[in-house]
């Protein structure tokens, strides 16, 4: 069965009444898409992501996905303190156990995929922003997700590592067919990597190709 994420008449308000942050939106994301969610600060991008992850419930309407396993890459992590005593391997091993994956090789496999094997014994808190992001992507890949959700993957990541991270995301989307939904502040990355842009504004959403987004939305903002 093909993966979809479908929103129908979706309303959301943290106060459970109007005004709504998401004000009656409809969309369908299909298998193999790479969607970047764009919009101004506070427009509801993270809220929409949390609704897809079922961390929040719609106030009205529905949002459903038939994804078998969702990998989630959070924006901020609890391991940014250099004194936090956990190594890359220990963190991934804890997650492996949480997912009830028996084979410890799964850790080495995902580290290999993001080119981070040499950092296996490093403390999480000593990694750079880019290295940390790669480890979080590795962690999200451990359950072999069919859907990967990322919250601003370039935040706190140096330019060089940003390029690597986006190249990798594009590759797993194209080659491995993993559907990607990414909340983005990085407009250039969204336009050059995604297959579709979801633009949120005033509680409404608009789904279009990066080409159309560049021609229509960005022109209007100039
Ligand atoms: N737990 C919460 N309780 C009440 N209001 C919230 C909560 N979380 C977010 N909000 C409000 O909901 C609105 C949308 O927030 P959200 O974080 O989804 O926006 P965003 O587009 O992701 O913002 P940013 O680009 O700044 O990360 C904002 O006005 C925010 O202040």
From TrEMBL:
Q: Matching PROSITE patterns, A to Z?
A: ABC_TRANSPORTER_1, ABC_TRANSPORTER_2
Q: Which residues form the ABC transporter domain?
A: 5-222
Q: What are the entry keywords?
A: ATP-binding, Hydrolase, Nucleotide-binding, Transport
Q: In terms of domain of life, where is this protein from?
A: Bacteria
GO MF term (any one): ATP hydrolysis activity
- List the EC numbers from the record: 3.6.3.-
Pfam families for this protein: ABC_tran
Matching entries from SUPFAM superfamilies are given as: P-loop containing nucleoside triphosphate hydrolases
In the record, the note on similarity to other proteins reads: Belongs to the ABC transporter superfamily.
Q: Quote the protein name from its UniProt record.
A: High-affinity zinc uptake system ATP-binding protein ZnuC
Q: What is the organism field in this record?
A: Caproicibacter fermentans
Q: State the encoding gene.
A: znuC_1
